[in-house]
Structures are given as C-alpha cells and as structure tokens.
C-alpha cells in the first residue's frame, strides 16, 4: 500500500486552504491602505484567489 499517493492530495488541499486564507487576510488589510495602491493590489489578489480556487476544484475531481 502506497501511503504517499493517498496523503499527498490531503497536504495539497490543506496548503491551498492556507494560501486562500492568506489572500483573504491581505484583502482585508487593503481596506487600511490608500486607494491608489488598493485597486492595483486588489486586482492581483483577486487573480491569485481565482487561481487558488481553480487548483482546489481540480483536487476535488
């Protein structure tokens, strides 16, 4: 029985959830920044969040 193949998706899922949490915290932090920086950073964070959610959905399949 190969436990590495069974455990790896669990770690990947966990790591993606942690990254999503970090992006959410960064988005919350944007509320405290000046408006010009906020728009640029928000766009980048939304793109990263979309990518992370796509990766998470691929793990579910």
Keywords:
single chain, 61 residues, mainly alpha
Task: Explain this structure.
- With 61 residues, this protein is mainly alpha-helical.
- It has a domain of 25 residues.
- Helices cover 89% and strands 0% of the residues.
- It contains two helices and no strands.
- The protein is elongated, with a radius of gyration of 15 Å.
- The relative contact order is 0.14.
Provide a brief overview of the structure:
This protein has 61 residues and is an all-alpha fold.
Biggest sheet: strands, sense, closure? none
The mean pLDDT is 80
With helices defined by DSSP (H or I, 4 residues minimum), what is the helix count? 2
The shape is elongated
Helix content: over 70%
Low-pLDDT regions:
none
Distance between the termini: 22 Å
Secondary-structure element order, as H and E? HH
Rg from alpha-carbon coordinates:
15 Å
- Number of E-type strands: 0
Label the structural class: mainly alpha
Strand content: under 5%
Any chance you could write out the topology, listing elements then pairs?
Layout: H1 3-30, H2 35-60
Helix pairs in contact: 1-2
């Amino acid at each position: 029985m190969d436990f590495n193949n069974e455990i790896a998706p669990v770690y990947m899922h966990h790591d993606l959830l942690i990254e999503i949490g970090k992006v959410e915290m960064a988005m919350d932090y944007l509320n405290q920044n000046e408006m010009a920086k906020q728009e640029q950073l928000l766009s980048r964070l939304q793109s990263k969040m979309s990518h992370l959610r796509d990766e998470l959905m691929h793990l579910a399949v």
